[in-house]
Amino acid sequence: MIFEVHPPTGQDERVLVAVGELDVASAPVLLAAVAAGLLDPPGIMAIDVNALSFLDSSGVRSLVLCGRQAQLAGTEFHVVCSAANRRVHRVFAVLGLASALSILEIWPPAALPEQRDS
Amino acid sequence: MDDVAAAHLNCAQEAIRTPGAIQAHGVLLAVGEADLSVVVASVNSAALFGRDMVGAHLRDVLSVGDMSALQAGIDGDVGQLNPLRVRVRGADVDMVVHRADGLLITEWEPVDGSVPSPEDWQRRLPVALQRLSATDSVLELVDVLAAEVKELTGFDRVMIYRFDRQWDGEVMAEALRPGLEPFLGLHYPAADIPAQARQLYVENWLRIIPDASYTPVPLAGHERAVGGRPLDLSGSFLRSVSPVHLEYLANMGVKSSMSVSLIDDGRLWGLIACHHYAGPHRPSYADRALAEFLGRTCSLLLASKTSAEEQDDVLYVEERLGAAVVALALHDNVPVSALTGPESPVLALLPATGAAACLGGQLHLWGRTPTASRVRELVAGLRAAGVSETDSVVRQIPDADDVLELASGMLVSPIGGGGDFLAWFRPESSYEVSWGGNPTAGVVSLREDGPLLSPRRSFASWTETVRGSALAWATHEVAAANRLASHVNDLTAVRSEGDNRLALALQRTLLLEQMPAVPGVVLAARYRPAAEDVVGGDWYDVIPLLNGNVSFVLGDVAGHGLGAAAITAQIRHGLRAYLLRQDGPAAAVQALNDLIAALLPREMATVIVGELDPVTGSVTLCNAGHLSPLWLTSGEEVFLDGHGPALGLTRDVPYTQTQLTLQGDDQLLLYTDGLVETRSADLTRDLDRLRGAARGVRRHPEELLDVLLAVLDPRPTDDVTMLLVGLEPGSSSPPGPG
What we know:
Chain A is an alpha/beta fold.
């Protein structure tokens, strides 16, 4: 099972890139990475999930928990997922993730008005 | 006791249906239906009609108009006729007709002498009905009923009397003239109203004795009717009552009495019992009919008020059971430690005053219980008697008088076969009863017209019945106790075998041991936990509702293994409890989402909740973030889209419902993602595979599930759960979409 979180590059706008299968086994890796990133809370944080090959409900739950951690830390939080990743997009749609998290088509958001998944 | 027994025997044999006489406030004429000639007449007929009526014809005494009205009623629905207001020798008379023994029984009651009801009462009827239906509980309902009947009929005292399972009774509500001693809360033994009188009450809703000092009026002409047998007067409102009963009324100071049956689902539930003390009291036939109407209305309302109350109790126990299961799951190293601590969920499970658990031979006690050694003896005694629950320990164990105050009621659920058990105790529920009134010694009375203050002999009989009795254990309480015990058994008996056994035990709380049989509905399910897990976060449930519908549930808690299973157990029991409220799937899902937000803030789950009406095939669905169910209908397979967010994501989005109607061999497939997920393909393609596998396959649900598993061949690393719902072949459902 392959899963990696690429640490952010950039000063204040932090983007973590998740790659591989995000499921019950790999969710703790993501949570740990986000927790580490929030030790010194940035103003904004995003997780790019476009490179995920698989995502299950446990993985989505870890995204929600990341979002809540960020909120507690006072950090604005986004998930970045383009419609091109149909699998992940579809999972977000079924679970109604947009009701809990900001989901952006592309990053940075300034390039496009913030768009919400439906 | 022998006297009493003999008296009861006499009562049972007394011919209360065929007394051969009527009360004196009216006249009875039994006429042949063909020619309306009088066959049997009460001997007071001359006083009303000016002539002895035996052998006469009704047209001799009725006007042409009244005759044609009567004839029209006889040709149609006789019941619609009553009462027929006729003129007899210049006086208004209410005539009431029914059929018995092949004759038309006509009863004639002069309007003169009846007590008028308050003038505006008829106008108040809609208000009264509204007040009755607006009540929230049985107690409120009968309170309103007593007040309305008193207002309508003007009796000095109106009591609502309720029978328990042994036919003992209690005054639950009372409306009375100021200055009278209240009877509210008094108890009466079953013997006060013998079985044959109770049977009569189910057939006849209302009885009245306007003047308890009346002299019975014999019937003449029996020899010409029905083979000379006495006329069956069980449907006759003038029927003369037992002389013993009249004497009894006189002893009690009751000058007039009336009672109306309250019948719940064919069983005599209780009575509206009315007393008058000042003198004879006779509401008109029309007002009595109104009182009967109120009684019938309340009888219908009883079911809803009662089931609402019982449902609250069921809800309470379900919630407690869920909490106990979770407590056990959270102590997954030493599960019984969840039971043995001071916060033990055992005592809290049921409304009881004491509880005990014997675990590994060690006894733990909570609340008010007999001593440890006495508890062991009592449990052994009940086991020897072959009883696991009783509302009277002394009835089962003769030498248990010492524990009445603590343990008159006992419920024991064995844990395994080794002598361990859970037990609950309830105290004796007998109490000081103030038997006011006139405690005459002597006669055990036949009381045909309702509950009355009992003579001392009845008091003795009652004390025997109630001594050592506790509040009975309800079916759902016994079931919950046994489920907890079987759960503890799973956890304790095999603790040494480690987590897998624990997981199996937990799994049992997630799944139904047996699919409930629901008339008109076919159900099938598959549960296959991931290979390395034994137990997962999937669950399904089927809950028959009191309204005849069935709720079905399939859900998935994010995560795997024991942690997820413990959360799942809690969510499942919570949802069960909410569904039993019968507010529909969306309301239950909404409540469950609130529960998760409040108590399980880190958890996420998806669920589909459906409610099927087996009669119409109508299905209401609520989907919280779950994969769309597949509707297998004539010639096509349709994914039913329409989602709310998964549970635990947000409290801001309200859940909505979708409707459809199952027809013929339509089936509805609910499944978890493990069935379709391949990890390699697009989810849409996975769902297309499922649709393809189901295409055109219309088989028995069990076979269909096997086919789907075989074709889709889901990965062994994921939980797979499926639930299939359909209508039983032959069940009809109306055509058309839902």
